[in-house]
């Protein structure tokens, strides 16, 4: 029996959410009272009901990902084993929800200098890169270190229509075909896309590319636990079953009907009340380099899901909370001054870790210099955790709302818990706000304008609208 199926392992790896410093009892008048939570009981109950009903109707299919993928996992593992020795590099071509999860997972679970390690120290797995922008320098420079002929490209796009990803695919396909010929190119491209919809599915069939499916009801930013995230994990030697086990455990915890014991729901409730109080910024500040890119992944999840103009009844609401990324302790020397003394417009979420995978002790030297000698003999874990605690305390004293999510260790299980936890919190916050957390109409405006400017068929009217836009006033250009 693997350890993550052992109940005591699960218990030991349970995330802790400490929200004392969100409460008025600790931060004073600018905090949240238990009465404020009680006052929205009806709203909370309606949101709980909606979560259950939507799940039952299959509208939140991402919630089932921990349970239904055994066949997919077998396929992914067999493919990863087959490809392992055939390539030196694995490159994800994707953007948004098709890139941020793989980046965050890789940073959390693999060696921080994974790509620089010799191959045997990577367990024989290929190096890992993500090309999620269309900055020409990025792709051209990537070819300086990745020979396309020794690389497996994973094209990830649910819609198969995203210009950034598809343009990269087009460039690489042509490059590979020129270099290797059509047949050999097939072995260097694997796609992750919808089962039937979009451009990429027919392309896979026509070209004979290996492909994996992003299931229906799993939107981009909720897709890390399907092949979008699982294939990059498997290709870099990470345990895909363990991350799903962690997610399943969090699913169990987030079904508790007592909201004070339900971490996902409570996170959403506190954020919702904070928003009602005008705290429209949410800072995520991990105190661990390994969790640095969790803030990027979370920022997209929270911003794209909750930032909406209309509610479900069509009323203009313009809601949302702006996510801000920070890193402890680094940003104590950058942003914390603002958090402590600036406006009461934000809530700060710390991500802490109990046990790091490495330790280092500060030598007992310079005892004769009191302002340095006091550090001697302490570990970096002690220094980091003490600084985290001190920052939490200082913010609490300054009346600034903050809370801490602690991972006993960073491993695939706790990462699965954390990601699933944030997904539930986001969906529940969407219910409390009475908005659709699963669409992104605001992104369409920019996309459509780009299509129009490029002369994409069907966008002629938009092109005319853009051509008629007001001329720039030169007085405002310096
Ligand atoms: O969360 C989302 O839906 C978006 O961020 C998408 O992931 C992103 O736009 C990429 O879309 P696609 O996977 O269709 O290429």
Textual characterization of the structure:
The chain is of the alpha/beta class. It folds into two domains: 3-39 and 243-433, Rossmann fold, CATH 3.40.50; 63-238, Glucose-6-phosphate isomerase like protein, domain 1 (Rossmann fold), CATH 3.40.50.10490. 46% of the residues lie in helices and 14% in strands. It has helices at 7-12, 24-27, 34-39, 41-56, 70-84, 100-109, 136-145, 163-180, 182-185, 200-207, 227-235, 240-253, 263-276, 294-306, 336-341, 370-373, 380-397, 412-433, 441-453, 460-467; strands spanning 16-18, 89-93, 127-131, 151-156, 189-194, 210-214, 281-286, 308-310, 316-319, 322-325, 346-355, 402-409. Strands 1-12-11-7-10 form a five-stranded mixed sheet, sandwiched between helices. A five-stranded parallel sheet has the order 3-2-4-5-6, with helices on both faces. Helix 6 (100-109) links the parallel strand 2 and strand 3 (127-131). The longest helix has 22 residues, at 412-433. The chain is globular, with a radius of gyration of 24 Å. 5-phosphoarabinonic acid (PA5) binds at residues 95-98, 157-159, 162, 165, 219-221, 304, 440. 5-phosphoarabinonic acid binds at residues 95-98, 157-159, 162, 165, 219-221, 304, 440.
SSE map:
Elements: H1 7-12, E1 16-18, H2 24-27, H3 34-39, H4 41-56, H5 70-84, E2 89-93, H6 100-109, E3 127-131, H7 136-145, E4 151-156, H8 163-180, H9 182-185, E5 189-194, H10 200-207, E6 210-214, H11 227-235, H12 240-253, H13 263-276, E7 281-286, H14 294-306, E8 308-310, E9 316-319, E10 322-325, H15 336-341, E11 346-355, H16 370-373, H17 380-397, E12 402-409, H18 412-433, H19 441-453, H20 460-467
Parallel strand pairs: 2-3, 2-4, 4-5, 5-6, 7-10, 7-11, 11-12
Antiparallel strand pairs: 1-12, 8-9
Helix pairs in contact: 4-18, 5-11, 6-11, 6-14, 12-18, 13-18, 14-18, 19-20
The protein binds 5-phosphoarabinonic acid.
């Amino acid at each position: 029996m693997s350890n993550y199926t052992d109940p005591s392992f699960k218990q030991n790896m349970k995330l802790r959410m400490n929200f004392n410093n969100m409460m008025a009892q600790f931060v004073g008048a600018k905090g949240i009272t238990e009465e404020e939570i009680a006052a929205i009981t009806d709203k909370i109950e309606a949101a709980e009901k909606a979560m259950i009903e939507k799940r039952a109707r299959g509208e939140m299919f991402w919630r089932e990902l921990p349970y239904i993928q055994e066949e997919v996992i077998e396929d992914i593992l067999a493919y990863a084993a087959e490809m392992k020795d055939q390539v030196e590099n694995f490159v994800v071509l994707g953007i948004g929800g098709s890139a941020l999860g793989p980046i965050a997972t890789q940073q959390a679970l693999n060696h921080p200098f994974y790509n620089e390690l010799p191959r045997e120290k990577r367990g024989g797995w290929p190096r890992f890169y993500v090309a999620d922008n269309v900055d020409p320098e990025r792709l051209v420079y990537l070819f300086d270190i990745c020979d396309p002929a020794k690389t497996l490209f994973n094209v990830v796009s649910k819609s198969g229509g995203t210009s950034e990803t598809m343009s990269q695919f087009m460039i690489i396909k042509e490059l590979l075909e020129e270099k290797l010929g059509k047949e050999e190119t097939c072995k260097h491209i694997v796609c992750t896309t919808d089962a039937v919809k979009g451009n990429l599915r027919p392309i896979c069939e026509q070209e004979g590319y290996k492909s994996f499916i992003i299931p229906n009801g799993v939107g981009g930013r909720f897709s890390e636990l399907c092949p979008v995230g699982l294939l990059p994990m498997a290709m870099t030697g990470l345990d895909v079953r363990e991350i799903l086990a962690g997610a399943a455990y969090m699913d169990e915890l987030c079904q508790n009907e007592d909201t004070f014991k339900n971490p996902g729901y409570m996170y959403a409730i506190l954020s919702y009340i904070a928003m009602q109080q005008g705290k429209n910024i949410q800072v995520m500040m991990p105190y661990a380099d390994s969790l640095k890119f969790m803030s990027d992944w979370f920022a997209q999840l929270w911003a794209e899901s909750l930032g909406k103009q209309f509610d479900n009844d069509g009323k203009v609401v313009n809601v949302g909370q702006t996510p801000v990324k920070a890193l402890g302790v680094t940003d104590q020397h950058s942003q914390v001054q603002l958090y402590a003394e600036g406006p009461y417009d934000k809530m700060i979420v710390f991500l802490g870790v109990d046990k790091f995978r490495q330790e280092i002790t500060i030598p007992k030297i310079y005892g004769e210099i009191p302002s340095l000698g006091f550090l001697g003999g302490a570990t970096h874990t002690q220094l980091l955790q003490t600084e985290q605690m001190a920052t939490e305390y200082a913010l609490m004293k300054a009346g600034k709302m903050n809370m801490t999510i602690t991972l006993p260790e960073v491993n695939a299980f706790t990462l699965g818990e954390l990601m699933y936890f944030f997904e539930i919190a986001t969906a529940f916050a969407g219910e409390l706000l009475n908005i659709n957390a699963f669409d992104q109409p605001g992104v369409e405006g920019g996309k459509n304008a780009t299509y129009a400017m490029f002369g994409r068929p069907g966008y002629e009217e938009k092109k005319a609208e853009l051509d008629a836009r007001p001329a720039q006033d030169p007085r405002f250009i310096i």
